[in-house]
C-alpha cells in the first residue's frame, strides 16, 4: 500500500473519531473542507469476518463505485460459507477476495484498513479488540458485546487505539428515525415519559442438541474461539447457537432487542436505568432444544420518572402492536410509532397527524436482511473513516444501549430484579454481578 494512502487513512480516521462522539447525526464537513483532505477519494481496503445471514446487508455498500472500497478477504470458519460468499460477489466487484478461515491471519495484512464483524456473539468484542490492536477500523454487528464487562472493554479499546468503530444497529442511520427523534427532543409530543419497544416472531422448534462430529468444513476450534472448549453438538453452528445456552449467544435480547431498545433510549434521551425488572420464560415447544427464554417482558426505570418497556415474543406470532417490531413513544401531548419503515405521529387523542415512510427497504423480523438502512450504515462507516461524516452509531453510544439487553438477560438468569447505578451502569446485586463477565478459553481474554 502506498505511503500516501496509509497516511490519509491514519490522519483522516484520527480526526473522524474526534467528531464521532459529539453527535449521532449525518452532518458532514463542508464540501470545500473535504476536498482539501489529501487522498480523500483513496480506496479503503476491507475484510468481512462471518459470512452468514448478515452478509447480504453489506454487498450493496461494497459494490457501489462511490464507496471506493476493495474487499480483500472473506473470512469464515465454515468452508461452505466462504465459497458461497465468494460466488455472491462474482461480477459485483472487480477483484477476487482471498478466502480465509482465521481472522488473525487476515489482520496481519498491513494493507487492510477495516474489518466487518458478523460472527456469533461471543466473538464480537474479542474480534473487535484484535482488529483495533492490529490498527484496523471496525464495523461491529450487534450485540457489540457478550456481557457487561466486554461492553466496557470494547469502548476502552476504541479510546486507546482511536479507531472508527461503528456498531451495527442500522436504524441509527435512518433519516426518518433521526428526523422524528429530533422533533421529539424538541417537544413535538410534549414531555416524554414512556417507550414500549417490541418484537414478535414465529420461530419454530429447534432440535435437541446431541453430541456429534462437527460438520465437514467447519473449524470447530476456531468457531469456539474465546469460549471454553467443549464437544460439538448437532446443528449448533448454523444459527441455533443463539438458543443453546450462554457460551455463544445472548438470546433474543442481544439478537434483536438491541435495535428497538436503542431507539427507545435515544428517543427518551436517557442513559442507564435505576431499576430493572423482568418477567421471562420458555412457553412454546417446551420439549425442544431451545434452552433460553422465548418470551420476555422487561421494565427499565430511569431518572425523572421515565420508563422503557420491552415486550418480546420469539415464538408466538400474534402481532399485538399490528407489526412485527417497532418502538412506541408516549409524551404529554401525543405519541409516535417508529420502526424501520418510518414513523407515525399522533396527537393526544390518537389522531394521525403525520406519517413518513422510508425511501427504500430493510429487513424486518426475518433472518438476514439488507436494504437501504444497512447500506447507508456501512457507507457512513466508510465516509467517517475518510473524515467526511460522523458515525451514526459510535461504539460508545451503542454500548450503553447494549447494556439494557445485558441487564434483562442477567435478571432473567438470576430470577430477580435489581437496582443499577444510573451513572456508572454497575448493578447493586451480588448475584447479578457474578454474571458481569464470563469464562474464556485461556489466552483469548480481551485485555488492554
Secondary structure elements and their pairing?
Layout: H1 3-20, H2 31-35, E1 44-49, H3 56-63, E2 69-75, H4 79-89, E3 98-100, H5 103-106, E4 114-117, H6 124-133, E5 137-141, H7 148-161, E6 165-168, H8 175-185, E7 192-200, H9 220-224, H10 251-268, E8 275-281, E9 295-302, E10 306-313, E11 325-331, E12 334-339, E13 342-347, E14 352-357, H11 372-386, H12 395-414, E15 418-419, H13 430-433
Parallel strand pairs: 1-2, 1-4, 2-3, 4-5, 5-6, 7-10
Antiparallel strand pairs: 7-11, 8-9, 8-15, 9-10, 11-12, 12-13, 13-14
Helix pairs in contact: 3-11, 6-7, 7-12, 8-10, 10-12
What portion of residues is helical?
A: 25-40%
Radius of gyration: 21 Å
The structural domain count equals 2
CATH level-two architecture of the largest domain: 2-Layer Sandwich
Order of helices and strands: HHEHEHEHEHEHEHEHHEEEEEEEHHEH
Uncertain regions spanning at least 5 consecutive residues? 15-40
Task: Explain what this protein looks like in three dimensions.
The chain has 448 residues and is α/β, with parallel strands linked by helices. The protein folds into 2 domains: 3-171 and 382-386, Rossmann fold (3-Layer(aba) Sandwich); 173-205 and 250-364 and 396-433, Dihydrodipicolinate Reductase, domain 2. 32% of the residues lie in helices and 20% in strands. The protein contains 13 helices and 15 strands. The chain has helices spanning 3-20, 31-35, 56-63, 79-89, 103-106, 124-133, 148-161, 175-185, 220-224, 251-268, 372-386, 395-414, 430-433; strands at 44-49, 69-75, 98-100, 114-117, 137-141, 165-168, 192-200, 275-281, 295-302, 306-313, 325-331, 334-339, 342-347, 352-357, 418-419. Strands 14-13-12-11-7-10-9-8-15 form a 9-stranded mixed β-sheet, covered by helices on one side. A 6-stranded parallel β-sheet has the order 3-2-1-4-5-6, with helices on both faces. Strand 11 and strand 12 (334-339) form a beta hairpin. Helix 3 (56-63) crosses helix 11 (372-386), helix 6 packs parallel to helix 7 and helix 8 (175-185) crosses helix 10.
